[in-house]
């Protein structure tokens, strides 16, 4: 079993009943099924501290995965807090949270998170985009293809077919493979009703009640171009609008979602960790 040591510093002041969890930062992506927290407390406060490792789903439903109660002595300032055996990936809109309660204090319990957990091996689906030289408007799909990727030294080229349903293409230029969407990710949506292509980047937040993760979209502005072709559309995205520099062998994450369709098959819209890779060769 792999173990991932996470240093968590908790400073508590007995007179104020104050505590704080400094590390890891929220939105952190773990890659283990065992989380070991290193905790500490000021010597003035020797009361019990109760911890819960919680899993909250997209609707805000809370499941307690494990509990620990620490009873530090006056001489004790550090200890290990271990949660083991997490049996599933926790990504996208699901998240782990840590609830801390000072047992002999009137101080309100605090909840820290969200944290993501990528327990399984990252999806290894890889597709090689090919070099396309010439006018990008001549980059056409073959019969039956819904989409196809190519590139040139100036940018990424995406061909879209005559689609019957909306299609979403998600890009992870940094290939970060994180548990949650991040600002650096980019989203392209083809709307069939208007035959238009929309460009977004995600913005994430936690509800004030800390019961669910919310993702919003913000307009992605840049020098992207969309061309009509004989059998669909072609999108051209300059490398600089992706925050990328062209290099042979460079890889970045991607996923495609349609009506009852995803590629890779297990790709979660909200988790780059589950997306595939495109390799530039």
How does this model look, in words?
This protein is an all-beta fold. The protein folds into 2 domains: 114 residues, Immunoglobulin-like, CATH 2.60.40; 155 residues, Immunoglobulin-like (Sandwich), CATH 2.60.40. The chain is 0% helix and 46% strand. The protein is built from no helices and 20 strands. The strands form 3 sheets. Strands 9, 10, 11, 12, 13, 14, 15, 16, 17, 18, 19 and 20 form a 12-stranded mixed β-sheet that branches. It has a 5-stranded mixed β-sheet with strand order 2-8-7-4-5, with no helix packed on it. The two termini are 36 Å apart. The N terminus is likely disordered.
Question: Summed up, what is this model?
Answer:
The chain has about 280 residues and is mostly beta strands. It has no helices and 20 strands.
């Amino acid at each position: 079993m792999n173990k991932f040591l996470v240093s968590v510093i908790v400073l508590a002041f007995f007179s104020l009943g104050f505590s704080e969890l400094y590390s890891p930062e929220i939105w952190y992506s773990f890659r283990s099924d065992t989380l070991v927290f290193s905790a500490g407390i000021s010597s003035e406060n020797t009361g019990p501290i109760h911890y819960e490792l919680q899993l909250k789903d997209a609707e805000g439903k809370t499941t307690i995965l494990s509990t620990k109660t620490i009873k530090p002595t006056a001489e004790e300032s550090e200890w290990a807090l271990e949660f083991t055996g997490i049996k599933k990936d926790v990504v996208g809109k699901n998240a782990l949270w840590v609830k801390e309660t000072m047992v002999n204090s009137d101080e309100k319990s605090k909840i820290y998170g969200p944290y993501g957990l990528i327990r399984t091996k990252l999806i290894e689906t890889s597709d090689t985009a090919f070099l396309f030289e010439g006018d990008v408007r001549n980059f056409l799909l073959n019969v039956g293809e819904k989409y196809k990727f190519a590139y040139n030294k100036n940018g990424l080229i995406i061909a879209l077919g005559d689609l019957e349903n909306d299609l979403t293409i998600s890009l992870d230029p940094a290939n970060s493979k994180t548990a949650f969407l991040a600002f650096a990710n980019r989203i392209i949506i083809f709307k069939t009703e208007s035959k238009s292509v929309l460009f977004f980047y995600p913005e994430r937040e936690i509800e004030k009640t800390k019961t669910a993760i919310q993702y919003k979209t913000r307009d992605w502005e840049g020098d992207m171009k969309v061309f009509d072709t004989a059998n669909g559309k072609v999108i051209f995205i300059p490398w600089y609008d992706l925050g990328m520099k062209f290099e042979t062998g460079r890889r970045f994450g991607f996923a495609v979602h349609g009506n009852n369709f995803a590629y890779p098959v297990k790709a979660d819209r909200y988790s780059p960790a589950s997306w595939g890779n495109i390799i530039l060769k």
